[in-house]
Amino acid sequence: MSQNEQKRQAAVAALEFIKPGCVLGVGTGSTVNHLIDALPLVKNKIQSVVSSSVDSTKRLRSIGFEVSELAEVGRCDLYIDGADEANKHFHLIKGGGGALTREKVIAAASRKFVCIIDRAKMVGVLGAFPLPIEVIPMARSYVAREIIKYRGQPVLREGFITDNGNQIIDVHNLSITNPTEIESRISLIPGVVTVGLFSHRPADVLLIGVPEDGVRCRER
Ligand code: 5RP
After folding, report:
1. How far is the CA of 188 from the centre of ligand 1 (A)?
2. Residues 138 and 204 both lie in one domain
3. Ligand 1 contact via 27 beta carbon (within 6 Å)
4. What is the pLDDT of residues 149-188, one digit of tens each?
């Protein structure tokens, strides 16, 4: 089965987690786009939808969903989002699509976080995928210099501005054996808005589309 079909099957499997009256947080990316396409099937169960990006908001509106602000709804019952990498502890790298800050806020404000991925995203050690860090523009050189201390290679994502008006540094060649420590340390660098490590608030459920057909479900 293709990687895209694995993503689609993981996304469809996530519909089971949407219970009547659900306040739903929706992530960003190609896997989540499959989820959005399938959401009309369970529209009657959804009380409100909160979105993690301008792109997902546009897609949700285009199929008739009203999108609420997180500040209006307070908390979400469920957050469904993809990831760039996941390990067996449910720690994630996210932000390949650049929406990491809003994604991290909604994940933190959600009772349950279901992460939908294809099998290629499961790794032993996080870091083969370049770690995205959202920074305020004036801090980008300073943050990049600090990151070199972690033996990573920081690369500015050229021509990309986040929904929050910031920039992204992608850090290559990291081997993240201690995600919670690295997440804490990078978060403390002045000028960092968000680091795309999700270990303090990991996923609760991994739905993994696999090449053989079907979806594996892992719960924390
Ligand atoms: C966006 C993200 C995405 O969840 C991540 O990049 C995975 O994307 P895709 O589903 O397209 O593989 O974190 O900021």
Report:
1. 24
2. no
3. yes
4. 988 999 999 999 999 999 999 999 999 999 999 999 999 9
Per-residue pLDDT of 19-48, as tens digits, reads 999 999 999 999 999 999 999 999 999 999
201 has a pLDDT exceeding 90: yes
Write out the residue range of the structural domain in which residue 102 sits.
3-123+200-219
Strand partners, 208: 117, 216
Q: Are 119 and 180 in a shared domain? A: no
- Which domain CATH number covers 21? 3.40.50.1360
Say if residue 85 is in the same domain as residue 138.
no
Name the β-bridge partners of 126: 176
Tally of domains in the chain: 2
CB 197 within 8 A of CB 184: no
Pull the structure tokens for residue 187: 């978060």
The residue-averaged pLDDT of 130-148 equals 97
Q: Verify whether ligand 1 is closer than 6 Å to residue 132 (CB atom).
A: no
Same domain, 95 and 174: no
pLDDT of res. 15: 98
DSSP state of 126: B
Q: Is the pLDDT of residue 82 over 90?
A: yes
The CA distance from 86 to 216, in Å, is: 14
Q: Is residue 219 among the annotated active site residues?
A: no
Q: Is 52 in the pocket of ligand 1 (CB under 6 A)?
A: no
SS3 137: helix
Ligand 1 centroid to residue 82 C-alpha, Å: 5
Q: Which of 5, 69, 85, 103 is catalytic?
A: 103
Helix, coil or strand: residue 58: helix
Q: Is the pTM of this model over 0.90?
A: yes
